[in-house]
Amino acid sequence: MSTGSVESNRNIAIHTDCITKTFGKISALNNVSLDLDKGMSVALVGANGAGKTTFMKTICGLSKPSAGRISVLSRVPDLASSKFVSSVAYLDQRHPLYEFFTVEDTIRFGAECNPNWNADEASAALELFQLSRDAKVKGLSGGQRAQLALILAMYKGSQIMLLDEPMASLDPLSRSLARDLVNRTRSQDSLLLISSHIIGELQEMCDFLVLFSRGQVKLVGTFRELVSQWEDGDIVTTDARRIPNSGNLSNDLEGLVNAILLEERYVSANVGPAAGGFE
Amino acid sequence: MTWLLRKQYRSISAWAFGLSLALLTVLFLLSITARRDAGLLRSHHCSTLSLGNYCNTAVGNFEAHSNWSTGILIVLLYAAPAILGVVLGITVVAREFESGTVSLVWLQSLSRTRWIWAKTAFAGAIAASCAILICVAAGIWGNDVYLRLLSPSPLTSRIFDTSGIVVVGYVATAFGIGVLAGAIFRRSGVGFTIALASFGLVRVLIEKLLRPLVEGTRFQSLSVQPPYTPVNGLLLHEGYAPLGSFHPPNSGSLTISSVCQSASQTQSQYANQAFTSCLRSHGLHFVVQYVPDSSYWIGQWVEFGTCLAIAGVAIWISRKVLDRADL
């Protein structure tokens, strides 16, 4: 069983108890137990196929666990419940949008479907990203679609925001704008979960980190705790065993961390805030 | 929600109404020539073809003149409700899955239940409106002119199936099956093919199993000499039976008693007084088994209700399937 608890107070927003999700013989989530509180911003990291997206989909009710229990704001995820779907916003990593809409239509869609829609902030974000209201969605670039999808999720007015790789197709300037937007929208009443492979950016938006490996939670902690264990100049790939609380890291985990870092080019990056994070 | 649905269904409703209006227009134009031809036939007293074939030549000419258009349009009248219903049904769920917008729309603040019902109602209303147009079109063209003349009973399959309230029922059934196929297969192409095949099967089952239960049959003794008594209904069987009995032997075939065979061969078989006398002397009479035309509306309403029930069950199952859906 993989267990983790990130406590800022005891105002639990998400509670998962031994959730398992299997697709045939593949186990996407394996006995994941995790408590996440309101007011937190949590980074989900892990290699491709580690279970981050499945975990998010399970939280928001798009995927049902094969075993285990989930409680989101004291409710079982249920897409048939308007109270539940009002409380959760999810940004799919594929950024699905209605192709026949214009940007204006998409914003109106958000407003029509969500009573807590923040129209002023959404308009400001459109200006920030310089998205033309008259532009057809099918004519938008991948990055512009990501921007629009992010606006749709962020200003829905939900207490729990699940963003699955929101920055993946954004250019450096847009990433910076998106980071600002996310940081502005965070509140003490909300819980923010972001999955990404770009640790440096996550560090700017999140306080906590949850590392997934092969469907299990392998590491839970604050960025501050993690960073304090390393010194500037450390090469992370060669020092995986120094990750805090990792005491007896299994060989699998060592390999995983190394693989993540190698895959995502962290290998050449120095560690520490002064060096610009983990990337 | 209404705004979203209007946007979402703008093109497909244009297609559906376009198809229905095109059918309506063609049938309306054909009805003009059809009425003229029908008038000619009626002037030769060939408006009823229940028994006897003395109008064969006139009817043959009429059919030769109208055969191609009648054939094509009957196929259209059968196919249009099925295609319209299934296509509109498939769009409710499958297109959202295909475009990936399910994860977008299901996590807006309106619940999935509300989303499903609103889409079903909206698309269903479009399907029903198109069905009514087709129903009117079939009524204008076929009910009183072409089809009624060629098949005198409104209970004949090609009239019963393509006119009246059952057309709306068939569209509803096709729609419900389309919604269900979309929910199960999540792909328009596969869903459309399977839904269409399933709808065809349902139609056959209704016709073979339900319809005979609803439409009660009757027996009647008829004269074999002019003036012939018309049968106001759908003829099922005919034959010769002993006086006092109304069950013709060997259903489906015209059995001439062997005892009167020689008499029947002297002149034409129906207008033969000797033949009639022979039958009477041997205690036989001519019997028909038929479904009275008065069963038409009972059959229409029962079938309509059954179709709506099937559609309702299919949509209910769709919701259950979606409740268990995993993305």
Describe the structure.
The complex is a heterodimer of chains A (279) and B (327). Chain A has a six-stranded mixed sheet with strand order 6-7-8-4-9-10, sandwiched between helices. With 279 residues, chain A is an alpha/beta fold. Chain A is 32% helix and 24% strand. The two termini of chain A are 30 Å apart. Chain A is built from nine helices and ten strands. By secondary structure, chain B is mostly helical. Chain B contains twelve helices and three strands. Chain B is elongated. About 2% of the residues of chain B have low confidence. The chains are: A alpha/beta (279), B mainly alpha (327). Chains A and B meet through helix 2, strand 6 and helix 3 of A and helix 1, helix 4 and helix 5 of B.
How would you briefly describe this protein structure?
The complex is a heterodimer of chains A (279) and B (327). Chain A has helices at 52-60, 82-87, 103-113, 119-129, 142-154, 172-185, 199-205, 223-228, 251-263; strands spanning 2-6, 12-23, 26-37, 41-45, 67-72, 88-91, 160-164, 191-195, 208-213, 216-222. Chain A is an alpha/beta fold and 279 residues long.
